[in-house]
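Box 3.1. Reading complex inputs
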Amino acid sequence: MSISAIFEKPSERTEDPLRIIIRRPDDWHIHLRDGSMLKAVLPFTAAQFARGIIMPNLSPPVTRVEDAVAYRQRILDARPTESDFQPFMACYLTDHTSADDIERGFVEGVWKAAKLYPAGATTNAHHGVTDVLLINRVLERMERIGMPLLVHSEVTDPDVDIFDREARFLERTMVPLLERYQLLKVVIEHVTTAEGVAIVRDYAPRVAATITPHHLTINRTSLFQGGLRPHLYCLPVAKREEHRLALRSAATSGEASFFIGTDTAPHLRGAKEAACGCAGVFVGATALQTYVQVFDEEGALPRFEAFASLNGAAFYGLPPNAGTIELIKRPSRFSPTIEVDGAEVVVFRGDENLVWSIGNIEK
Ligand code: DOR
Ligand code: ZN
């Protein structure tokens, strides 16, 4: 099977939809949670993606090798029986993370990467890093052993406007960090700004970015379309239209530094529709249908396989998946919500007619 996407043009018969077949994709940024939420959401990610990086912002966070081994096992146990989904674990960095522990977990194949949450930046980030200077030895060690640093790139300074927090972090913290550790591999997670895209390009190939389905399809005005839309609220928050367009052009460019990271982040409806609602969009069930629609709209379907299935694996030093997935330009509809223990999680675009559907998966 060739690595490049296979296209079947619509035939004369208009009822034959456009379809593409690509290598099975991976999701390099996933929140699966734990317990009944894990069981409820994992099947949707596992139905779309072969492998993925599991974010460690549980409560308490996944900071130790032993915790990650146990969490990984709970994920494997929660998979539907026919699923071959492979979870990769990321270490939650704190001010007290030890360089030796990081190296041990990486060498043992438990950690695939480490996640830097600036303390307080987002959901369950209060154990995060208060000052990157405090993890200097950890970063030096990661640079030496080739372990990627995944960054939630937002300042936490309450005086900084929320729409400027990514750009300020990039100039104040990210650029000095990239200059200090010149060989460190870094992913700007869920990039939301043109400034972020520009930094990735300046420092490629050792710097990359994940891009979410929602940041490709909504801007900050969408958050207030006809009223307040709590289910579109995530962090980093969606930015102005010019930034969304910069993300679409980066994702569809074919450049090796941009790849899928859905940031699927389920919260119960009650936690979202609240006086102080949680950040996070549950996008795991409609991610691929949304990404492929964006590539179609941008006339970039021939580059979809690189973004979805090749670039991320190459960045992490892994081969692409052996199997394939078929995507069909045929209307589909998911479901507005999924059930978790008698409560609901609202699905991103769950109430819309989707333009694309998922077809056959060959493992
Ligand atoms: O919107 C978000 N939700 N952003 C994050 O960084 C964390 C995530 C979550 O865990 O809910
Ligand atoms: Zn996330």
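In summary: The mean pLDDT is 96.
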